[in-house]
Amino acid sequence: MSSEHADRLRSVKQKYAPRWLAFEGVVAVGIGTRDQTPCIVVSVAEEPSAFAGRIPSVVESVPVVVEPSGEIGPLE
Fold first, then answer.
1. What is the pLDDT of residues 9-65, one digit of tens each?
2. Listed residue (56, 60, 54) closest to 25, CA to CA
3. What is the model's pTM?
4. Between the CA of residue 38 and those of 6, 42, 60, 72, what are the distances in Å?
5. Which of 2, 41, 61, 69 is 20 to 30 A from 75 (CA-CA)?
6. What end-to-end distance do the CA atoms of the chain give, in Å?
7. Within a 13 Å sphere around the CA of 68, how many CA atoms are in the beta-carbon half?
């Protein structure tokens, strides 16, 4: 991935992450790859289908993947 493409992914993630993190059950927003395609990954504590219609599969031509991660909390 070129640095220009990485910068674009970071920019789009920064723009949408606060909106998605406001949804109950969204625990993280990051950058990753799926099938060797760079994307924004939204990690959720519940079934990803619960976010259908609220988190799009593509924003500004960037793929978005919603995946289950379970609850994330502090290490003990």
1. 999 999 999 999 999 999 999 999 989 999 999 999 988 898 889 999 999 999 999
2. 54
3. 0.86
4. 8, 13, 13, 23
5. 41
6. 36
7. 6
